[in-house]
Amino acid sequence: MRNSSLASPSGLASLSLVAPDPAPAYERFELPNLFQIADWSDRIAWRPFQDGVDICRLHGDGRTGPTTALIRFRQASKIPLHQHTGAEHILILAGSQRDQNTSAAAGTLMINPAGSAHSVVGEAGCIVLAIYERPVEFLQDAPYGALVAASA
Which of 9, 35, 55, 137 is the most buried (most CB within 10 A)? Predict the structure, then answer.
């Protein structure tokens, strides 16, 4: 069955123009060409985060409430063992990274649940978009066995 409202004389599908509902405009942050970030990452206001890892916070302060940030790993750099106090969403934009679960490349979306713990290595270097509900708790001085016992 053919839907005549989608067909045009040339045989190409045409879409009716639909306008958004009226609402006042507001100021928002937009970051275009995100999947080509490796081409223009030198224009980002990076700040030191961990040894060999830089961060650019886009929303939130990283200490309270939700946060959105770009994180850049230099080759073979690492974010030490940390536990998620809320869900964390990671979209790898360039390069690859590895933790105890997987090695993941650009285009991969990972969602780490609240209570999960890991250390992350930027294998050949990478840039990720990180969105997390609540700040992470760094555990580099706590042995992993103590972490497992505390979460049980």
Answer: 55
CATH of 45-151, one of 3.30.420.40, 3.40.50.2000, 2.60.120.10, 2.60.40.1180: 2.60.120.10
Locate tokens 């990180």: which residue? 130
Per residue in 66-125, pLDDT tens? 999 999 999 889 999 989 999 999 999 999 999 999 999 999 999 999 999 999 999 889
How far is it, in rounded angstroms, from Cα 138 to Cα 80?
Answer: 7
Q: Can you tell me whether residue 23 is helix, strand or coil?
A: coil
> Which residues in 7-116 belong to E strands, given as ranges?
47-50, 53-59, 67-73, 77-84, 88-98, 103-105, 109-112
Question: Which residue do the tokens 């067909």 mark?
Answer: 7
